[in-house]
Write a structure and sequence with these properties.
This protein has 286 residues and is an alpha+beta fold. It has five helices and eleven strands. The chain is rod-shaped and about 165 Å long.
């Protein structure tokens, strides 16, 4: 069967050539030949690129190239990292420390005080015991001393009264006179009223014996200050709200302003020192 097929092709060509009218033979120009030749390679190229074998071959080639290039890149990236770590290590090493020694030895050398041999530990610090202070006698244990009060300088009393003058009064029996406040008493003026311009009065009183009902009249004094001191003898008085009081030699008492009082009795030799503010005061019988 394979041999019969070519014979038919030749007979067909012959019949075609016999039946076709005779035409002028067409000469193929040289320009058309190269065009056909040039077009042929393009078709072949398209066939080559579209073929699956060519595609797989290209992919395989790219993978092999990538595998070969990968170790080179890793090596290239790892080298600078080694250099950086080395540079950091050299930068952190303190100046004067030889390479290869650890930081601990450098710290130990730095912390060791000057003059202490290496290998010897520092002596333990001795804590000073508090010195026990002597507790004052009479103060219970555990109680602290009270803070000392600051000394406040004393202030002088500034009076609105007229200026005072110096005066002295010596004992003279002629100075006892009966022209004082009471007719039953003799008064020795000490000159204080004149020296203080009426601020204060001071006198010595001798009571005239015997004590009568005229003496026992209840009364009061309108004063700012009244102070009495017994120089001799004794005197018995009664004070509002305090009852009867026996005053003897050496006794001193203060009568508040306006207090009602009564002289009850006295000795024949009684002698009193009385100081009254102001010098001029009023006495009222009750």
């Amino acid at each position: 069967m394979a041999k019969a097929a070519p014979k038919r092709k030749t007979s067909a060509k012959k019949t075609a050539s016999k039946s076709a009218p005779a035409e002028a033979p067409v000469k193929k120009s040289a320009a058309s030949k190269p065009a056909a030749k040039k077009a042929a390679p393009k078709k072949a190229a398209t066939k080559k690129t579209s073929s699956p074998k060519a595609v797989t071959a290209k992919v395989a080639a790219k993978k092999t190239v990538a595998k070969k290039a990968a170790p080179k890149k890793a090596a290239a990236t790892s080298r600078p990292a080694v250099k950086k770590t080395a540079s950091k290590a050299t930068a952190k090493r303190p100046v004067g420390r030889p390479p290869g020694k650890k930081k601990d030895t450098a710290k130990a050398v730095a912390k060791r005080p000057v003059g202490r041999p290496p290998g010897r530990k520092a002596a333990a610090k001795t804590v000073a015991k508090p010195v026990a202070t002597k507790r004052p006698v009479g103060r219970p244990p555990g109680r602290k001393n009270a803070p000392k009060a600051k000394a406040v300088p004393a202030r002088r009393l500034v009076s609105k009264a007229p200026p005072q003058v110096f005066t002295v009064s010596h004992l003279n029996e002629a100075d006892f006179k009966a022209d004082g406040l009471r007719a039953y008493a003799q008064y020795r003026d000490l000159g204080i009223a004149a020296a203080t311009s009426g601020l204060c009065q001071a006198h010595v009183i001798r009571m005239i014996s015997p004590c009568t009902d005229e003496v026992r009249q209840r009364h009061l004094h309108e004063t700012e200050l009244q102070l009495i001191y017994v120089l001799k003898g004794w005197i018995k008085n009664e004070f509002e709200g305090h009852g009867e009081q026996m005053m003897s030699a050496g006794t001193c008492w203060l009568q508040p302003p306006g207090i009602e009082h009564t002289v009850l009795d006295y000795s024949a030799d009684v002698e009193l020192l009385e100081i009254i503010v102001p010098a001029d005061f009023k006495t009222t019988e009750v």
